[in-house]
Specification:
Layout lengths: L1 H20 L9 H9 L13 H11 L4 H25 L4 H12 L3 H4 L5 H22 L3 H16 L3 H13 L10 H23 L3 H12 L6 H11 L4 H13 L8 H15 L11 H15 L8 H17 L8 H6 L2 H5 L15 H4 L4 H16 L3 E6 L2 H10 L7 E2 L14 E8 L7 H5 L3 E9 L11 E8 L3 H15 L1
Parallel strand pairs: 1-2, 1-3
Antiparallel strand pairs: 3-5, 4-5
Helix pairs in contact: 1-4, 1-5, 2-3, 2-21, 4-5, 4-7, 4-15, 5-15, 5-16, 7-8, 8-10, 9-14, 13-15, 20-21
């Protein structure tokens, strides 16, 4: 047992080392990370874009100094714990050490390396999906009701982290009804656990009710702007690529759930997968929403293959199965991570385009992967806004108003002047400090929207100019303009308050 956990510790350490080495120094934090970090400055039971759990980790990051090391620590931790959770699933399935090594290698060298690069709710989501499946297996093996209540806590936490976990339960319920395990619905404690889950998620439901369920507006906007571009064929391609090195293992897991006698009581997992995938396809979900499904199937497949390859000449397949994810990971290592400079990617676009990495959410191909372009230009923006802020704020309060959450969040993260930039975009609509009397305005505008800003806003101030812009040619925000408006002739607070009210009415 001690040897087993020393090997698990090796995988966990390797996971952390890889996560911290996969991002080249040319890249900054990602657009979405700035928003999630800023949520830690505005703790609440809900946000327009996500539930609250990630903001609690953002608050911890802020408390320990807010450095990039800590921003990257938590997603890496959740990825490492996912490996540990799969390890425990295999123990529960009576798998041997080889099965644990095979599964851990497949989980380590997978899409989770990319997912766990960014401070977003998705890393914790995958861990919680895996833990929920583990707890369900524990209950079916022991029929101890404590596991139902633990499952409720996991689901409640998952709901407060990302609403996507509802799809997991929507896949589990009909799948169980299709098998002998349907007797679980006669267990009174199942409904007690359901009540516990409801109590955990209730604060967020009340928050949603208080703000007229902004999640509905967010989902509608997501469907109109992003999900409409989702190609169902690409969705299936991504499912293969996510754990490309473990395709054989996952396939073995599907087979074992249908035909391997020791897994008979877990057969509903087979149906659960296809029901959940069907729901994702129906709603045109993004491909990465389904990542949480796969770790448990890697566990099932690893245990089955370990039993198949345990004796005789078949033992030669043991090292081969472990070598496959290593071999297939190497080409992905060179394209799937921001470990190559932007210049290199632009000069070698073929392999990136072949894998669809240059296609953005607008459905078009660009010179860099969207996530990589979203990790450029933010420090430059913050420095230039700081410069203009210093010039204006000596003679009164200055409001920094941005077009989008990435701009506002990056300025707030990197600013040396203590700026609290805001936007009418995303959660920033609730974070305006209108108790201050503003005399000046710094307006950060996307390049495509800046044409008439001086003409429209300039007349309300004594001095107006386009002060600077983002010059980083690799940034998605390239050309974003920083306008400086000095000496208001109008009541800025009243104008902003009116705009805020109009935007909120749209929610």
């Amino acid at each position: 047992m001690k040897k087993n956990y020393l090997i698990l510790f090796f995988f966990i350490i390797t996971k952390f080392i890889l996560q911290y080495s996969l991002i080249s120094p040319e890249y900054e934090l990602h657009r979405d990370e700035y928003l999630h970090l800023d949520q830690g400055n505005h703790l609440a039971w809900g946000y327009l874009s996500v539930p609250p759990v990630n903001s609690w980790f953002a608050w911890i990051i802020k408390t320990v100094g807010g450095s990039v090391f800590w921003v990257k620590f938590f997603p890496a931790l959740f990825g490492a714990l996912t490996i540990a959770a799969v390890w425990k699933i295999i123990e529960e399935l009576q798998g041997n050490l080889y099965a644990k090594i095979l599964a851990s290698t497949g989980i380590l060298l997978s899409v989770l390396l990319r997912l766990n690069m960014l401070f977003q709710p998705t890393s914790l989501e995958v861990l919680l999906w895996t833990l929920m499946y583990y707890v369900l297996i524990r209950y079916l093996n022991s029929e101890k009701v404590k596991w139902l209540y633990i499952a409720a806590v996991i689901f409640g936490t998952g709901f407060l982290n990302k609403y996507n976990i509802v799809f997991s339960v929507l896949g589990i319920i009909p799948a169980i009804l299709l098998t002998k395990q349907r007797k679980i619905f006669l267990q009174p404690h199942l409904y007690g656990a359901g009540l516990l889950a409801l109590l955990i998620i209730l604060p967020n439901l009340l928050w949603q009710y208080h703000y007229d369920f902004p999640v509905v507006h967010h989902m509608k906007e997501l469907a109109e702007r992003q999900l409409v571009h989702v190609d169902r064929i690409d969705f299936f391609k991504s499912q293969i690529l996510f754990f490309i090195g473990s395709i054989l293992v996952i396939g073995a897991g599907f087979y074992a759930l249908l035909f391997y006698k020791p897994f008979e009581k877990f057969r509903f997992f087979f149906w659960m997968y296809f029901i959940t995938i069907g729901l994702f396809l129906f709603f045109r979900a993004k491909d990465y929403y389904a990542i949480g499904l796969y770790p448990v199937f890697i566990a099932f497949g690893s245990v089955f293959l370990a039993s198949v390859f345990e004796k005789g000449w078949k033992k030669i397949f043991q090292p081969i199965c472990i070598f496959i994810p290593v071999l297939l990971f190497l080409p992905l290592y060179n394209v799937a991570f921001p470990n190559k400079s932007p210049e290199y990617i632009i000069n070698h676009p073929e392999k990136y385009k072949k894998m669809g990495l240059l296609r953005w959410e607008d459905g078009k191909d660009h010179s860099l992967p969207q996530d990589f372009a979203d990790m450029q230009g933010w420090k430059e923006l913050a420095q230039k806004v700081d410069k203009q802020y210093s010039l204006l704020s000596a003679s009164g309060n200055t409001l920094v108003l941005c077009d989008n959450y990435g701009q506002a969040g990056a300025i707030n993260y990197y600013s040396k002047k203590g700026i609290q930039a805001v936007s009418f975009n995303a959660d920033y609509i609730n974070w305006f400090d209108l108790n201050k009397k503003y005399h000046h305005l710094i307006r950060v505008k996307e390049f495509s929207k800046d044409e008439d800003e001086l003409k429209e806003t300039g007349p309300y101030f004594k001095n107006a100019k386009a002060a600077d812009s983002i010059n980083n040619k690799f940034a998605r925000e390239k050309g974003t303009v920083i306008f400086s408006f000095e000496g208001a002739k109008i009541d800025i607070n009243a104008r902003i308050r009116n705009e805020v009210d109009q935007v909120k009415q749209g929610y």
